[in-house]
Amino acid sequence: MSNIIECNNLSYSYSNGKQEMPVLQNLNLSVDQGESVAILGQSGCGKSTLLNLLGGMDEPSSGTVLINNTNLAELSEEKTTQLRAQHLGFVYQFHHLLKDFSALDNVAMPLLIQGENKQTSKEKSKQLLESVGLKNRIEHLPAELSGGERQRVAIARALITNPSCLLADEPSGNLDAKNALDILELITDLNQTQHSSLVIVTHDEKIASKMQRVLILENGQLKQS
Predict the structure, then answer these.
(1) What's the CA gap between 50 and 2, in Å, rounded?
(2) Strands 3-16, 62-67: parallel, antiparallel or unpaired by DSSP?
(3) In terms of DSSP bridges, do strands 36-40 and 62-67 run parallel, antiparallel, or are they unpaired?
(4) If you ran DSSP here, which 8-state letter would residue 137 be given?
(5) Is 87 within 8 Å of 114 (Cβ atoms)?
(6) Most buried residue among 69, 107, 136, 195 by CB atoms closer than 10 A?
(7) Residues 90-116 pLDDT 10s
(8) Domains along the chain?
(9) Angle of CA points 204, 210, 212, to nearest 5°
(10) Mean pLDDT across the stretch 37-54?
């Protein structure tokens, strides 16, 4: 089984005046195709930073990140963007939907950006929105949807390109208990049906327990739960 994501000796620091503040230190991680992995850790431990590094949105201070065996450090910014669009989907605590576009248009946007024709993009988006329980809400604007519905749209948008891996940053952290459970079940079901990998960062042990593997981020490194 091949690794979708692999990072080796990954370190990241930020400057606080004249002082370097380490966040991650010589961290190693591999995620197999179809595997679900939870990364637990206290607020401020670097979970979101790690996810941004895995997604190629930030550059490490040292070490390497490979997506589908391609080293991000060897790519131009344009090529990194293309690789990210092809292989990765992102879901955040806040949905980040485009407020002036319908649910259907929000989900179709990644396909349109990739150059797929409008009719095909909207048909695929409609089918995916129906699969996440929003059959009767596809023409609604984000402001007309509940918090749980907006997060479902965000998940559909992340999955519309059939990514190799879904990266989720506290995807249910802004929801009530009922909607949080629904969103978690939706993500894990889609992970299984689409055979995509899933990396979810969270501070919630109940969420982590639903994943195949649980890692703890502590003192800049990952350890087995």
Answers:
(1) 21
(2) antiparallel
(3) unpaired
(4) -
(5) no
(6) 107
(7) 887 666 788 899 999 999 988 888 888
(8) 3-97+163-224 (3.40.50.300)
(9) 120
(10) 87
